[in-house]
Every structure is written in C-alpha cells, then in structure tokens.
Amino acid sequence: MKTVEESKPVNLLSRLVDTGAHQKLLAFASLIALLIAFSIASPNFMQTSNMIAILQATSVNGVLAVAATLIIITGGIDLSLGTLMTFCAVIAGVVLTYAGMPLPLGVLAAIGAGAFCGLCSGTFVAKMKIPPFIATLGMMLILKGLSLVISGTRPIYFNDTPGFDQISRGSLIGELIPALPIPNGVLILFLVAIAASYILGRTVLGRYTFALGSNEEAVRLSGVNTDAWKMAIYALAGGICGIAGILIASRLNSAQPALGLGYELEAIAAVVIGGTSLSGGRGTIIGTLIGALIMAVLTNGLRVLSVAQEWQTVVTGAIIILAVYADMVRRGQTK
Questions:
Q1: How far apart are alpha carbons 273 and 298 in whole angstroms?
Q2: Which phi and psi angles does 178 have, rounded to 5°?
Q3: CA-CA distance, 172 to 116, in Å (whole number)?
Q4: CA distance 115 to 133
Q5: Does 106 reside within a domain?
Q6: Quick check: 92 and 109 in contact, CB under 8 A?
Q7: Is 20 exposed, middle or buried (0-12, 13-18, 19+ CB in 10 A)?
Q8: From 1's CA, which of 19, 163, 178, 293 has a CA 20 to 30 Å away?
Q9: Where in the chain does DSSP place strands (E)?
Q10: How far apart are CA 222 and CA 53, in angstroms?
Q11: Is 270 part of any domain?
Q12: Cα–Cα distance, 223 to 240 (Å, whole number)
C-alpha cells in the first residue's frame, strides 16, 4: 500500500497530464467551432481552394511554431524566429540565384544558416547569461539588418532555379490522388512535426529539453552540462526556422528581405494555445499543430469575411493576450 508521500508525485504527474490533455481537447474543439462559424458566415470559406490556402499558411507558421515549442519548453523565448526565417530565405537566394548553385546546396545553406544563428542565440543565453527575451530581441534586429544588407534591400527571385517553387506549392499527393491536392509544404510540416515529436519523446535531447524547463538548477547540480544542451536546443530550433525560410521563399518564389516581423508572435500564440506552458517544462507538438491551425483558420476566416487588415491585427493581439492569460490560469491550477 502506497504512503501519502509516495503518491504525491504520481498525483501531480496525473494532474499535469490531465491538464495537458484537457487543453489539447479544448484547442481542438475551438478549431472545430471556428470552422463551423466561418462556414456559416461565408459560403466561400469551405471551398477547396480556400482550404488549401489555409494549409499553405499553416505550413509556414506551423514549422515556426514547432521551433518555438522547443525553446519555450526550456523556459525560454525566441523573438527572432520570424526574422531568422527571412534571413535563411535570403541566404538561399544568395546561394541559388546569385551563386547559381544546385538546389540541394541552397536548401542546406538555409538550414545551416538557421542552425548557426540559433546556436549564437543559445550562446548568448547559456554562456553569457543574457535573458532570452533580450538576447533574441537583439538577434532579431541583427538578422533584420543583415537580410536587408545582403539582399541590397531588394527581393531575390528564384525564377532561374527549376523546381524551387514546387517545394512548397507542388503536390506529390495530388499527383497520385488528384482529389487530394495537398501542398508539399504541408507534408514537410508533418515531417518536421513527427521528427520533433520523436526528439522530444524518445531522445536524450528531448528529456533534457523538458528537464531544463522544469528545474534547470537541479539538472545542473546533477552534473549535466546544461549550457551545452541549451545551445543544442536553440541550434535545432534555428535549423527548423531554416526549413520555414525555404517554405515561405518557395511559396512566394522569392526571398523578401523586409518580411518576417510578426511571424514569431503568431508562432508563440500557436504554441501557447496548443497547451505549452510559457513557464517551461510542459508542451506537445500535436498541441502546437492544433494551435497553428487555429491561427491560420482565424486569419483566413477574417480575410474571407472582408474584415480590414488593421482589425485582423487587433484580433491577433487579443488572441495572444488571451492565450498567455489562459496559460497563467493553467499554471495556477496545477500548483
């Protein structure tokens, strides 16, 4: 028979799991409610072309949200995700358009640039002990400036790179099943999500990701090099941002150096809506995907209803505040 002391950790774990499952269920119910509401409000919402547009938007924001999930689980934050995505797209443009290199090299260059920038952010946070908010804010400004400098403040087009636009806009599934023209960008999102889920659930890096967010000091006192693991997590998130950069550049068939600001806020909102705690130590990739879909459906639905862009921004800001408040309430309930 278990003593009261022995049962406390089990009860706490059960409450955390139940809270996470409840949040994902609530997020999924909210997604269904939004789909129904916008379908009733506008007959154009449920058209196939519009559903594909929502999936396309989710592919970019969803990949960024996966990167944000890794950082937030550690108890950190990354405000440079959007500009890092743009910077990686610009690097791809330099390699493919300016240097005329093969497509695989451009993709690898973008992912490598993202991983390196993520490693720099992780170094600022782990080694220099700069608060994540300040470190990534500075990195955001650096990357924004570098994108403009490298590109000469002009878009870089990929017209001379055959197949680049098909990375995001093509449809391998559509070629096999014409009735399901699911964009390749969505497949890439799911592949990234599956890989991230595996890393979080089945690898040492994943275990330390949760451990750092739960109690970093305890992990450090146990003899673990927490700085190295934190830097690795930021580098991984940066590499994922490189994938997002390739997706958005492929979708636009160009690298737009002024693009990127604001994407990180939607990604963070998707993460929190999906049940990841801003205090760290808890979160799932599945919840993040649901949150990304909610953000994409909300933005698209408001656009279909001809809501002015400025009011769409107001709604997005309100959603972010509500998501953070909901996270605070959840944390209060699990104490």
A1: 13
A2: -55, -25
A3: 31
A4: 19
A5: yes
A6: yes
A7: buried
A8: 19
A9: 156-157, 254-255
A10: 48
A11: no
A12: 29
Strand partners, 156: 255
d(CA 278, CA 134): 16
Answer yes or no: are the C-beta atoms of 260 and 86 closer than 8 Å: yes
Strands 254-255 and 156-157: antiparallel
Distance CA 234, CA 74 (A): 10
Q: Which residue has the tokens 């809506």?
A: 273
Q: Which token pair is 30?
A: 């909210």
Average pLDDT over residues 130-157: 95
Model-level pTM? Answer: 0.89
Give the residue from 263, 212, 225 showing the smallest Cα distance to 57: 263
Res 12: pLDDT: 36
Distance CA 185, CA 253 (A): 13
Decide if 75 is inside a domain: yes
Confirm whether 3 is domain-assigned.
Answer: no
CB-based burial of residue 333 (10 Å sphere; 0-12 exposed, 13-18 middle, 19+ buried)?
A: exposed
Coil, strand or helix: which one is 254? strand
The number of domains in the chain is 1
Residue 197's domain spans which residues? 46-260
Residue type present at position 213: G
- Taking only the tens place, the pLDDT of each residue in 262-279 is 899 889 989 988 888 888
Q: How many residues does the chain have?
A: 335
What's the one-letter identity of residue 79? L
Q: Taking residues 330-334, report their average pLDDT.
A: 61
Specify whether the CB–CB gap between 125 and 76 falls below 8 A. Answer: yes
Yes or no: say if 41 and 300 are a contact pair by the CB < 8 Å rule: no
